[in-house]
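TEACHING EXERCISE
Course module: macromolecular assemblies
Task: Read the component lines below, then compare them to the predicted structure of the full complex.
Student: A.B.
Group: 4
Components provided:
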Amino acid sequence: MNIHIKNGRLIDPKNRIDAQQDVYIAERRIAAIGKAPPGFVAEQVVDASGLIVMPGLMDIAARLREPGYEYRATLESEMDAAVAGGVTSLACPPDTDPPLDEPGLVEMLKRRARSLNQCRVFPIGALTYGLKGAELTEMNELTEAGCKAFSQAEAPLTDTRVLMRAMQYAATFGYRVWLRPQDSFLAKNGVAHDGEVATRLGLPSIPVIAETIALATALQLARETGVILHICRISSAAAVDMIRAAKREGLKLTCDVSMNHVHLTEMDIGYFDSNCHLVPPLRSLRDKAALRAGLLDGTIDAICSNHSPVDDDAKQLPFAEAEDGATGLELLLPLVLKWAEQERVPLLDALAHITINPAQLLGQKMGHLSAGAYADICVFDPGTSWKVEPAALKSQGKNTPFNGYEMQGRVRYTLLDGQIVYQT
Amino acid sequence: MKNPQLNKHGELQHLLTTEGLPVHILRDILDKAETFVGAGDGQEIKKVPLLHGKSVFNVFFENSTRTRTTFEIAAKRLSADVVNLNIGSSSTSKGETLLDTVDNLCAMHADMFVVRHSSSGAAHLIAQHVAPNVHVINAGDGRHAHPTQALLDMFTIRRYKKEFHNLRVAIVGDILHSRVARSQIHALTTLGVPEVRVIAPKTLLPTMVENLGVQVYHDMALGLKDVDVVLMLRLQNERMQGAALPSAQEYFKYYGLTEEKLACAKADAIVMHPGPMNRGVEIDSSVADGKHSVILPQVTFGIAVRMAVMSMLAGNKQ
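Instructor-supplied answer key:
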């Protein structure tokens, strides 16, 4: 179907466009920007007056909970949530049950996702079998099945030799390795940042060095093996400094932060709010400021939702016993907009963190609206303010630390492959 | 953020922690406790009908004998109906969640819960969940708080030292894992004690503990110098497994309270311990039973303080 999106403010970070430009879609792709291609006849016209038209969001950390945890969420519920949040591509970590360590599982997930036709799913394969940290998975087979990178998700990999072998093997074939740096001994039983709040509340804690020691190991091994390394969800000022230095030195390295850590700190735990039981833990104000600085100077490439839906029963427990995680797909765009407004970041730069940057670090030629690209588009109203009400979220996970927050910016249309998959 | 312990009139609705409690409420509790302790010889008064017709549920998810017993005696002296439930850690393995258990007990018309749980924040969770006419008393949650223990310690200190504003108090031992220590620190600083010290090896101190308003010492002789009150903490045996300490013997040598170390404190210093004591680990028998020790009076005062807390809560309506 030929679609004409007219009168919108087009923001395309990759092509450095921020201007009122019409978008012409034909045969599922961007046919032209600005001026209609010869002979173009629109079958549908979307009036985007007062709205912003941008590439569909790419969220590089969204747990769909399938297979294995369907009581928490299903592909159907989470795909609805994704498109309601303007997310047209997402990468899901391998910590499903069973983990994504077999090509068959990956193919099944891809097929299930494709049949729903709402959002592209890029599975991240398990780096080791069963995420047990001992034997390497068949990375070639998994790549053929559709895996775009390999990761341990939150499972520990304590054997440094296995980690080095995994990186060497991945480097042989140019595969990407994604790591969330955490020393599992230092983090053992911890549920909150090792700082003033955990001390006051008597919560078992995770020190910053649990992150930096594991990060130092990962960086040294990346130097040694030449692997394409992506560091997931850094949480501390010290880690930002280390990554900044490593990038300056020329290491092939990218890094992301979760939207939770861009906005929240340990103080938000308040009186044991289990919605703030997150992994990695929310850290100090200083850490939050450093993460924001890292986004501004390019140390941190992408912002993800770290969407991890949890059922209510698993959250209605004392803080340490409550399951970690929060829903996030529907809040990614408004929270990036909020951060941009607070830090006075031009939208052209801010939106790169949820479009072109994540696409590039995943090795995908998407996340932009050049002529010929897939027409994955998000159209949102920057003027609409709304309040986060868990019951109104489409995700099956209703738990969010942003419950009751005022948000600015609401998705009006989501297009995938040139088709409108969401509108409101 | 609303203080979850106070009702809309600023009165005590639940007792969850000593942190953030207004000083006048702390003083009111101590004053009220005085009325439950007999004058002069420490003889306690008999049964009073302040909680007549009320049901107090002692819900202990973690084992305790002493604390549960003193709460039971306190509730009975206030003429309440008392139900004791030792749920232990096995109930959760049967599949019932903490809040399911609480809902069931609420359906039995509980007016007050006395809760102990191994997880920090459990009492807060229950307090947020119960109906507005139900009161919750935290009898110990994880490493977080044990407010009635701290209040009975404050009561004991006031009995022997009269005032708080001229005292130097040292807390000795496993501060990191201790809910008693946290509650003591907040109570002491709120009541105006100008100098609160903690004495422990670095492995038993939480990060940034000095931000709670205490001075940190690693050496007993320095830390105990000229103190008026020594608050000892119990050392759990499992600390040796967690690599926090090499052995009980070595701990006793450096941090066990002996007469020799106590000589650094003021001549009229008092020694307290929340019990149960590990004699020969954190405290020498000669000190525990010696003239500075007020450990047994602490237990007696514990009943009066718990009576005070329960009767105050019962009188405050949402």
